[in-house]
Amino acid sequence: MQAFVIPPPPIASVAVDGEPARFPVRRIFCVGRNYAAHAREMGSNPDREPPFFFTKPADAVVDDGAHIPYPPETKDLHHEIELVAAIGAPGRDVAPADALSLIYGYGVGIDLTRRDLQGQAKEAGRPWDWGKAFDHSAPCSPLRPVCAVGHPARGRIWLTVNQSLRQEGDLSELIWPVADVIATISRSMALKPGDLIFTGTPSGVGPLVPGDRVQGGVEGVGTIDVVITERG
What is the band of 49 on the pLDDT scale with cuts at 50, 70, 90? Predict the structure, then answer.
C-alpha cells in the first residue's frame, strides 16, 4: 500500500441519481462562450470560432442543495447555468461521431464566476483562474446515466434567482455540440473516466448576493437548487 508524507485529500465526487455510489471527479473542463447570445452579451463575436476552455479544480464541485458561502475577493459573483457531461470511458483523438460513447451521464451545473476578477484578468491579458477556479465554484446536480436520459441535443435550459427567471435557452443553441467539444478536448489531452465537462451557458448571466436562492435545470436531465450565504 502506498504511503504518503501527508494524508491524501478526499476524492471529490458527484452524486448519481438513485444510486448510493458516487461519481469520482478527476478534472473539470469548461467551455467558454458556447451560446451565441451569451457571447454577444460578453462583448464577443458569436461566429463559430474554435471552442476554448478553462478548468476548475475537482474539489470545486458542490452538491445539489448546498449552502455556498459568498466567495472572498469579489463584489460581483455571477451565475452561469450549464449542461454537464460526465466522462466514463477514456479517449484520445476521438472523432465527433464516436465522442458520445465516452459519456457516462449528464447533470446540471452552475459555473460560479467572480466576474470582476475575470474582467481584470482579461484586461491584463492574464489567465482567468482567479475568476473561475475558486472554492465551491462548480455546483452540480446528481448525474443521470446515458441509459436513463440518452444524449440530450435539444431541450430547455434555465436558471432563476429567488424564483425570478434570469437565464433561458435551448441545448440546440450550442455553438459546439457536446460531441464536438469532446473531440476537441481529446485532440489536446486524453480524456479519462471522472472528467466533467461544463458545456457553456446561455445569455442572462448576472450577479448574486448572500441570501439568493439559485435554481436551474435542463429539460430531461435534472435540476439544481443552491443558496448563497454570507461570506465564510
Answer: confident
Q: What is the pLDDT of residues 104-127, one digit of tens each?
A: 999 999 999 999 999 999 999 999
Q: How far apart are CA 89 and CA 194, in angstroms?
A: 9
CATH number (3.90.850.10, 3.20.20.80, 1.10.3720.10, 3.10.450.50) of 23-229 reads 3.90.850.10
* Number of other CB atoms surrounding residue 9 within 10 Å: 8
Q: Please name the residues in contact with 38: beta carbons below 8 A apart, sequence gap of 6 or more.
A: 200, 201, 202, 203, 204, 205
Cα–Cα nearest to 29, from 66, 55, 64, 1: 55
Q: Which amino acid type is present at position 41? A: E
**Mean pLDDT of the region 2-31:** 97
Q: With 0.85 as the threshold, say if the pTM is over it.
A: yes
Quote the pLDDT of residue 135: 98
**What residue spans of 9-106 are helical by DSSP H?**
36-41, 96-99
